[in-house]
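Review box. Two proteins, two foldings.
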Amino acid sequence: TDDLALVEGLPLDEKHFRIAELEQRIREADELIANDPAGSAHLIRHSLRWLDELGKLFYVLADYPQSETTFRKALAVAEELGDDEQAIARCKNGLGFIYLDRAEYAKAREQFEGALKIYARVLWPDHPFVGTIVNNLGQVLQALGDLSRAKGVYERALKIEEKALGPGHPNVAFRMNILGLVLRALGDLSGAKGAVERALQID
């Protein structure tokens, strides 16, 4: 979510260069903050943004231990600041992706549910970010084999994105294809056929 696609799109050498740059900035910020905690609020916010970007860079490079450590640090900073709930939600979402990729589904579910609770409150229930997090939860449920609940969650994500992005948006087609796979696995061949056909019409 967020700017993850932008991070993914960077050439490999630029990713490594950016990691080194961010790590240096964060080290310098940590030293300044330690010397003057009371007067470093603006620097703490900069550091939080750098940590978020660094966590995403480690994630797209599949360095999950470093990504988890970085997002955990960012989450602690965001929670201590206490006035940027979306930053907390971004960190939880980042951690959720790490745990999902590592097949730690209970942990992934906890983080995605935490992010969803925040986004649904500070944005609005039909915001595209909410649809994305709902879809992430669907992935966890599908991976756990809870297809009936995954179906309901994917349908909710689809409804949100249709409303937010329009019924002809490529994201809607993508979500429809996923829903079709779940319906097929549940034995609803007619529903699966309808979902895939609709996705093809959008494509």
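Next protein.
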Amino acid sequence: GTGNKDMTVGNSGGDGTLNLNDGVMELGGNNDGAGLELRRTLQIGQNGGTQGEFNLGDGLGAAGTASFETWSTVAIGGNSGDGVLNIKSDGLLRINYADALALSSQLNIAPGGGAVGVINQQGGTIDMDGLLQMGTNTAQAQYNLTGSTGTVNVRAISASSTSTFTFNLDAGGATKITVEGNVNTAGDVTAGSVSSTVNSRSD
């Protein structure tokens, strides 16, 4: 784990880049010593004049060999900051459900007015038991999926009218976003006027 503090990549006018090309990084943990999960937030590009970028995987290793795991929210762009998460074929982002606390978390792209948040995923995996939240308070959220080899599992999606999904197809088609829902919830998906673009492969 990374200890008892939240983690920020780019904050308050200072740009930041994090490269995780191999190995496992845990933020927080599944036991704080008292049997509860230790929940710490990852923030990428927070506050005005800031650019943050997290490169998860470099496309050279085996699937899942560049792994980031947390039990709390991942926020990409926020409070007028710009954030980018790039996931390659060997990248794995896992956002766990906190069983002992009975709390789920979010993958939050562009929370807050003036923010810009982007996910570029080319293969690799996002696996989370929580909400994919895209764009709040006029913030700009973009999710770009390239190729058909990626995996995306979420519990639910909430997308504002300032959000865009772009699917760049290859010979196998497109990466699917699987909305798994919750056994206690019927129809665990909400959406605004989200737009999507499908681009055919060029070859």
